[in-house]
Each structure stands twice: as structure tokens, then as C-alpha cells.
Amino acid sequence: VFIAQSRASGSHRDVEDEELTRIFVMIPKSYTEEDLREKFKMYGDIEYCSIIKNKTTGESKGLGYVRYLKPSQAARAIEECDRSYRAILAEPKNKSPESFEHDYYSNSTRQEPRGNTLPFCGQPDFCSLEKNESRIQESVSKRLSVVSRLPFIQEQLFALFDLVPGLEYCDVQRDPHTNSGYAVIQYSTAASAIYAKYKLHGFEYPPGNRLTVIFLEDGSDSSE
User: Fold this and answer.
1) First to last CA, the chain
2) Which residues does residue 66 pair with via DSSP β-bridges, in sequence order?
């Protein structure tokens, strides 16, 4: 989604583009910047690597940044690197590193059902969703409600849910009193809606903001 959003910015590297090319990773404290570069150079052209160190002792905190030349390279690194690195898109530079480190550790140590990645495999059975799982017992439909404490941008949310085949429309609304986000998503089949809910309920978009995705009654026969 972030990459799609940045396409309109052309070839020049603006502030938005910079925030799409920098990733934040958890690393062994023994890593040097050269070790970090060596581990992540396979995903693209690296502009710089840096390791966060204790200001008093100079020791590594076990955290680092890797800046790529292209957003697509940063996205590939997040998707394909070993999960032990817990790679995520770095926060904007106007947020203090200490604040970001605290948020990062808090999020990383939580027990999460899945990482912030979407391994859509494109198989007809949607990666073998088991029909006897309890989540399928709820009243399903082709339509989903998406709620967020932050407002949505129509194009970004559409691009996110369009990763699941069969998206028919995405209607974004905003509560003027709370500034929270609300959207209605509809797919061509209930199977697509089930898969989208399974993958995107609890997904952090943007990082740190969890989406709530539930089924909306659409009048169709849910037995299908």
C-alpha cells in the first residue's frame, strides 16, 4: 500500500519516499554495521546502515536501521528476511528514537497471532482454511465493516483489501467527532470476504494501529 501511494511522487525522493525506504530491525548485539549490511544487501541497494547504541557506554542496543534506495527493496526485505529480525517500516524521523524503541519493544513482545505480513498464496482454497474452525461458524457475508482509531485514505485502504481477489467496492467514511476511520468493503464471494477478515482483522495499518474487521449482513444466503 505504501509503495502504491508513493508511485505518484515521481522519481524524486521526497520526505514520504524516505519513510518508505527505511526499515527498523532487531539484531544480535554483536552485529557491526558491516554485518548488518551483509545480511540485508541481498534485498536491494543499501544507502546506509546504522546501529542504535547506548549513549553512555557505546554498546549496541540490538536495534538498527537499514535504508534502501527504493521502497520496493525495503518492502522485499521486510517480507523475506528472517522473522527473528522483526523487520518493520521505520517511524518518521520526527518521532524520537527513544519513543519508537519503546513502542517497538512493546509491540514485539506481545503475543500476536501473526506477523504484519500478508502471505497471500493465491490458491483456490485460500491456503487451506479449515472449514471446521470456529471462526467460520459466525454469520458470514460478502460484506465487511472495517474500523480504525485513525482515519482511512480511500486509495490506500482499497489497495490493501484488493490484495484479496474479488474486491467489488470500498466505501470509506469518517466520523467528524472522533476522527476515527470506518469503511464498508464488499467482495464478489463470501469466500473472499472470509479470507480478507482472517488475514486483515488485527493487521496493523499504519504500523501501531490495529484494524477491526467484522462481517456485515448483506442479505445473502450465508450457507454458501
Assistant:
1) 31
2) 23, 49
143-215 folds as Alpha-Beta Plaits (3.30.70)
Sequence-distant (6+) residues with CB within 8 A of 186 are: 142, 143, 144, 167, 168, 169, 193, 218
Q: What is the DSSP string of 22-66?
A: EEEEE--TT--HHHHHHHHGGGS-EEEEEEEE-TTT--EEEEEEE
In percent, how much of the chain has pLDDT > 90?
A: 27
Between 138-142, 164-168, 190-194, 217-221, the lowest mean confidence (pLDDT) is in: 217-221
Cβ atoms of residues 170 and 159 within 8 Å: no
Instruction: Write down the pTM of the prediction.
Output: 0.41
Cα–Cα distance for residue pair 137/215, rounded to 1 Å: 12
CATH 3.30.70.20 fits 16-89, yes or no: no
Provide the pLDDT for residue 103. Answer: 54
